[in-house]
Write a structure and sequence with these properties.
This protein has 81 residues and is an all-alpha fold. The chain has 3 helices and no strands. It has one domain.
Length: 81
């Protein structure tokens, strides 16, 4: 079974965020959030593999929103020190 690369990239993006939060390294978390946001835009425009419907667009927009929240929250933590 061949796993589409988009699923692997989304997993890696969330893994980077998880590692950054676990290590309390906010710049890495911010980079992961940017990556998740870019993946969310890509999913919203192109869909997931051959599936393009309201569910995948919602999935992409949800990724953009969560990435924005994590990015803002991490930026506040970095600049409040």
């Amino acid at each position: 079974m061949d796993i589409p690369y988009i699923y692997l990239l989304v997993f890696i993006a969330w893994l980077v965020i998880g590692i950054g939060l676990f290590l309390k390294d906010y710049p890495i978390t911010m980079l992961g959030a940017i990556f998740v946001g870019v993946m969310g835009v890509w999913i919203t425009i192109n869909g997931l593999t051959d599936i393009t419907n309201l569910a995948t667009e919602s999935f992409g927009v949800l990724h953009i929103g969560i990435a924005g929240y994590i990015l803002i929250k991490s930026s506040v933590e970095v600049f409040s020190k």
